[in-house]
Amino acid sequence: MGNKINNPADKLAIFMHIPKTAGTTLLHLFKKNYIEKERRVYP
Q1: Gene3D superfamilies from the entry (predicted)?
Q2: What is the tens place of the pLDDT at every residue in 1-43?
């Protein structure tokens, strides 16, 4: 089972099955963290 996860095609398949809302939430969190980092650098 571990070897299957290391297959890039399987990783892509797993990623494609992530619900759109979960992906949007992750993207939102990533953007929020990025903006907070930028604020620290440029107050």
Answers
A1: P-loop containing nucleotide triphosphate hydrolases (3.40.50.300)
A2: 455 556 777 777 777 776 777 778 888 888 888 878 877 776 5
Question: Domains of the chain: which residue ranges?
Answer: 19-43
- Specify the pTM: 0.39
Q: CA 38 from chain center: how many Å?
A: 19
The whole-angstrom separation of Cα 14 and Cα 8 is: 10
Q: Confirm if 11 and 5 have CB atoms less than 8 A apart.
A: yes
